[in-house]
Amino acid sequence: MSNSVTGLLAMQQALATTGHNVANANTPGYSRQRVNLTTMPPQFQQGSYVGSGVQVASITRSYDQFITSQLNSATSENNRLSFLKDFTSQATQLLGDTSTGIAQQTQDFFNATQAIASNPTDPTARSAFLGSAQALTNEFNRIDSQLQNLDSQIGQQASDIGRQINTYAGQIASLNGEISKALATNPNAPPNDLMDQRDLLINKISEQINVTANSDNQGNINLTLASGQSLVLNDHATTVSVGNLPSGLNVTLGGADITSRVTGGTLGGMLQAQSQLVTPLRNQLGRAALVLADQVNQNQTAGVDLNGNPGTNLFTDVSGFAPQTTALPTNQGTGSAVGTYTDPTLLTGQTYQARFDGANWQVRTQPDNGAAPLTVASGGTLSLPGMNVTFSGAPQSGDVLNILPTVGAAGKIGVVQQSPSGVAAAAAGQPAYSRDNTQIQALFNLGSTTLVGQSAAGALDGSSLTDTISSAVSQAGAYAGQIQLSAQAASTTLQNLTAQQQSVSGVNLDEEAANLMKYQQAYQALSQSISSSNVMFQSLLSAFR
């Protein structure tokens, strides 16, 4: 009878566990549980060992650490590329294509000079030229403004992600404490549901940022970032902070800058969108706008207008532009920098980062091209291609300044010449209403002159304004196409790994139904055994009455 009773108790737990599986078949993160049975120690009776029944050794979950680790990595990569796919689609739509977007409007602006060249005194041609100039600057302004808006949206979303990561990390740390305590009490009774909850939270963090999970011998799972710093260590979570500077997102962990180490999850996608699309695109368009304003204004001020007066600027003067410099929030000192342009045609299109080593600022291009850094003392001025940067303040060792030479310049260019007669079509010294077209023809030639990014003044070994803008549009489109393909591959990988994980941990209702029948039949048989034993016991008692 006692053997049957142990069997009944074991089958009760088996039935309860199977019911638990069925109830959680659609619960996110749930792993199928199974009852592990073992025989009870036999008893030595009358010269032989007699079985003592069955007992539940443990209730464990169907779980594969290797697949789970792969799934978390795939989740992180898929979310990174999924964000990039959506973002690049929005960004490239702003640009149009090379036949209808800003590239074509740039060409239209230069082409509009030809009507004036054919008839320098025609007010209609002059008005049309000013209209094309206004349309071009409006397009520069619109694209830069909308790219800046997209960048601001990234900042808002990234701040929310930072808060989510901290919430999940805190919950994981709390679960670590509960799980390790439970395992310390009874190593053979793992808290499966708590462990599932923790795995689900780790997967949710992987959606947002790349992490590595490592388990210890006490039941804790510790999370580290690529920097090697701990996000979760036992029952303690370190705070992640995310800010959006003009130079891009800044991510800190416990006050330490880890921005360059964030390469996965939605947050990694945001950082990549800024560093590989938004900032380069705004920088290239800004450089084109700056060179356009500088060169066209030089052309106009060198000639005379329709009334024979010296020409004036067509676009915003270069003095109205300035490089952006931003300090990291982790800086301990008050170091700062101010930039001024010397020759916009020499600007390389690169951004720079200055790091103070305790004695001097070390300035490198971004991304780092491996060249030796340029060195300048605090209070000194550094000459960079196309501009000078003057450093000031009291920096501390390790402080960082980001220098963005032309980001935002496309949003500042405007048309300042409002009078059609103010367009300088003739060369200097020509009288009023001259039919000379020297100056306006030279302006047309600017469109194909390879002066953007030239190595030295007059070298003409750079690219033309029209080619520079077309190249920026084409590169953005190519980058978006590459991301689309990578995102499709990452999605397929994630689907395959999810299917593998579910084949191991997922609840199969058909299998559970079969288990219910098996355990129910065993329970009924054991009940009948107890009933038969009871009849025999009662018969034995009756024999002695």
List the helices and strands and how they pair.
Layout: H1 2-23, E1 33-39, E2 43-45, E3 48-50, E4 54-61, H2 65-95, H3 102-111, H4 113-118, H5 123-185, H6 192-208, E5 212-215, E6 221-224, E7 230-233, E8 236-237, E9 240-245, E10 248-253, E11 256-257, H7 265-301, E12 303-304, E13 324-327, E14 336-341, E15 351-356, E16 360-366, E17 374-377, E18 381-384, E19 387-392, E20 400-404, E21 426-427, H8 438-446, H9 465-505, H10 509-543
Antiparallel strand pairs: 1-4, 2-3, 5-6, 6-7, 7-8, 9-10, 10-11, 12-21, 13-20, 14-19, 15-16, 15-20, 16-17, 18-19
Give an overview in words.
With 545 residues, the protein is α+β, with helices and mostly antiparallel strands. 50% of the residues lie in helices and 17% in strands. It has helices at 2-23, 65-95, 102-111, 113-118, 123-185, 192-208, 265-301, 438-446, 465-505, 509-543; strands spanning 33-39, 43-45, 48-50, 54-61, 212-215, 221-224, 230-233, 236-237, 240-245, 248-253, 256-257, 303-304, 324-327, 336-341, 351-356, 360-366, 374-377, 381-384, 387-392, 400-404, 426-427. The strands form 7 sheets. A 5-stranded antiparallel beta sheet has the order 13-20-15-16-17, with no helix packed on it. Strands 5-6-7-8 form a 4-stranded antiparallel beta sheet, with helices on one face. Helix 2 packs antiparallel against helix 9 (465-505). The chain is elongated, with a radius of gyration of 36 Å.
